[in-house]
Design goal:
This protein is mainly alpha-helical. Helix content is 44%, strand content 0%. Among the domains are: 57 residues, Orthogonal Bundle (Annexin V, domain 1); 69 residues, Orthogonal Bundle (Annexin V, domain 1); 77 residues, Annexin V, domain 1, CATH 1.10.220.10; 72 residues, Annexin (Annexin V, domain 1), CATH 1.10.220. The longest helix has 15 residues.
């Protein structure tokens, strides 16, 4: 079931013909415009700079003398123009275009640098050969309404008109098809903000999907699978504002099983989701120790502190008290240390200190009868992650064995699993989560809760890296394994949201 605008059909994003890049009359102009065509630079008769009587009038030839070009204050380009320069035009050393030998060019013309302006082979594409990219780095492209006047780049005046010092919004205000916010550099998540998402329109889709006989699960999947967490969470308040009902309650009454758990998880903030998963791991007859270690070893100090606040507010008991009452021994100490959110987070590494810590670990385990678990706990839970990676390297150099193997030789049970998980997460977090996903799908049954938790919590953090590590480690894509393991279950649609996150 589809609804208008989810996702936009033809004419949406990216813009269709008539949008950007502009056609003839746009920027750069066709033959005869600027930059000049055949004839090169300096141009031939009639080119640029213009001859006597042209623009701007010269006084004494080229380069211009006093009063010539560049023009005085108030001329073209205006102060603060595009691109803004300090000191006018031509720009000072390091300005645009950069050219060895300075300006004006020497005999033989002005050689444009590779990829410069006008572009050489491999430079900036011309219209008709791929055109200009629709999204310039660091900003949004200005849309051109079909049938309307063509615009410059981006949102500038028509060719031949001066560039204003502070370009205002394009005619008509906001573009017809809003663009998604710029994605932070280095973003490794697989879900991005949906352009122009409106919570009030989105809750209409959810309401229609749940009304009447049966539930349109595909409509719910299509919407939630294409929204980031910050676009999904406001739907809870918007739903209550619009319909006076609780979205969680309505979804739970319409959905069942793992699909219900998945949808509810996607509508929680990351902090509330982590707190609820920790609660589920602790309460009841058994304890999911792997879940406790997974969350506490992979979250930052700030995230753990927020989890502690939400946990106390939601469940009336501190996370530390819950851990203490449900675990024991050195494993309890490991979890209590991790839940403090007090790990050193400095990026600098002192190699001499790393060597000392490696020696302490060796002396506490391999080089003594018995094991000093407290020394392992102190180093693994307090030192920064960059520092610990250096410690693990020095340890292997020192005793010829990886730290995980030494931990397995010196400890057992939950403590062994916990410490090994901490080491793996610190060494390579995406590889650690790839292993968690693989183990969740191996064997007779699928650990759906682990699968849902990892996919939801990492989809906007490092899912692209997790996919790479999964393929590297297991020779199959994560998408393939999820499809093979889950599509033949009773409710195949429950996996669609998970696959959207990949």
């Amino acid at each position: 079931m589809s609804y208008p605008g989810y996702p936009p059909q033809s004419g949406g994003y990216p813009p269709q013909a008539g949008g950007y890049p502009p056609q003839s009359g746009g920027y750069p102009p066709a033959a005869g415009g600027y930059p000049p065509q055949a004839g090169g630079y300096p141009p031939q008769a009639g080119g640029y700079p213009p001859q006597a009587g042209g623009y701007p009038p010269q006084a004494g030839g080229y380069p211009p003398q006093a009063g010539g070009y560049p023009p005085a204050a108030g001329g073209y380009p205006p102060a603060g123009g595009y691109p803004p320069q300090a000191g006018g035009y031509p720009p000072a050393a390091g300005g645009y275009p950069p050219a060895a030998g300075g300006f004006p060019p020497q005999a033989g013309g002005y050689p444009a640098p590779s990829g410069g302006f006008p572009p050489q082979a491999g430079g900036y594409p011309q219209p008709g050969a791929g055109g200009y990219p629709s999204m310039p780095p660091g900003g949004e492209a200005t849309q051109t309404k079909p049938g309307g006047p063509q615009q410059g780049y981006p949102g500038g005046p028509p060719p031949g008109q001066p560039m204003p010092s502070n370009p205002g919004p394009s005619p008509g205000g906001v573009p017809a098809n809003p663009q998604a916010p710029a994605i932070p550099k280095g973003y490794r998540g697989s879900i991005k903000d949906f352009p122009g998402a409106d919570p009030l329109r989105d809750v209409e889709v959810l309401r229609k999907a749940m009304k009447g006989f049966g539930t349109d699960e595909k409509a719910i999947i299509e919407l939630l699978g294409n929204r980031t967490n910050k676009q999904r969470v406001p739907l809870v308040a918007a739903y209550k504002t619009t319909y006076g009902k609780d979205l969680f309650r309505d979804l739970k009454s319409e959905l069942t099983g793992n699909f219900e758990d998945l949808v509810v998880a996607m509508l929680k903030t990351p902090t509330h989701f982590d707190a609820s998963e920790l609660r589920e791991a602790i309460k009841g007859a058994g304890t999911d120790e792997a879940c406790l270690i997974e969350i506490l070893s992979s979250r930052s100090n700030a995230e753990i502190i927020e989890i502690n606040k939400v946990y106390k507010a939601e469940y009336g008991k501190t996370l530390e008290d819950s851990i203490t009452s449900d675990t024991s021994g050195h494993f309890r100490r490991l979890l209590v240390s991790l839940c403090q959110g007090n790990r050193d987070e400095r990026e600098t590494v002192d190699i001499s200190l790393a060597k000392q810590d490696a020696q302490k670990l060796y002396a506490a385990g391999e080089n003594k009868v018995g094991t000093d678990e407290s020394q392992f706990n102190a180093i693994l839970c307090a030192r920064s992650k960059p520092h610990l990676r250096a410690v693990f390297h020095e340890y292997q150099q020192m005793c010829g064995r990886e730290i995980e193997k030494s931990i397995c030789r010196e400890t057992s049970g939950n403590l062994e699993n916990g410490m090994v998980a901490v080491v793996k997460c610190i060494k390579n977090t995406p590889a650690y989560f790839a292993e968690r996903l693989n183990k969740a799908m191996k064997g007779a049954g699928t650990k759906d809760r682990t699968l849902i938790r990892v996919m939801v919590s990492r989809s906007e953090v490092d899912m692209l890296d997790i996919r790479q590590e999964y393929l590297k480690a297991y020779g199959k894509s994560l998408y393939t394994d999820i499809s093979v393991n889950l599509l033949n279950l009773n409710n195949p649609t429950k996996t669609e949201d998970i696959r959207h996150a990949m």
